[in-house]
Amino acid sequence: MTSSGHAAGRDQETDRAHAVPREDADGPPPWVALCGTPVAVVQGSWAGRRGLGSGDPCPDCRRLAPG
Ligand SMILES: [Zn+2]
């Protein structure tokens, strides 16, 4: 199982980045992150600067999708 299959989602209320399964992100909203948080925006890869590389990646999503 690879960890590259996640997109970076963003919770609009907190600006925290969350991991969204790629197959979900390719479909229509609403999207729900691995930790169960609804996200309003999906942008880029979870492994990139919009996700783990951002200023505030979700610790639960980071545990569930380490990279
Ligand atoms: Zn999360």
Walk me through the structure:
- Residues 8-25 have a biased composition (Basic and acidic residues).
- Residues 1-31, 47-67 are annotated as: Disordered.
- The protein has 67 residues and is of the alpha+beta class.
- It has one domain (6-64).
- 15% of the residues lie in helices and 28% in strands.
- It has helices spanning 22-25, 59-64; strands at 6-10, 17-21, 31-32, 38-39, 41-45.
- The strands form two sheets. A three-stranded antiparallel β-sheet has the order 2-1-5. A two-stranded antiparallel ribbon has the order 3-4.
- A hairpin with a 5-residue loop joins β3 and β4 (38-39).
- The chain is globular and about 25 Å long.
- The termini are close together.
- The model has no long low-confidence stretch (mean pLDDT 91).
- The protein binds zinc ion (ZN).
- Residues 18, 33, 35, 37, 58, 60-61 line the site of zinc ion.
Jot down its keywords.
globular; binds zinc ion; 5 strands; alpha+beta; two-stranded antiparallel sheet; about 70 residues; about 15% helix
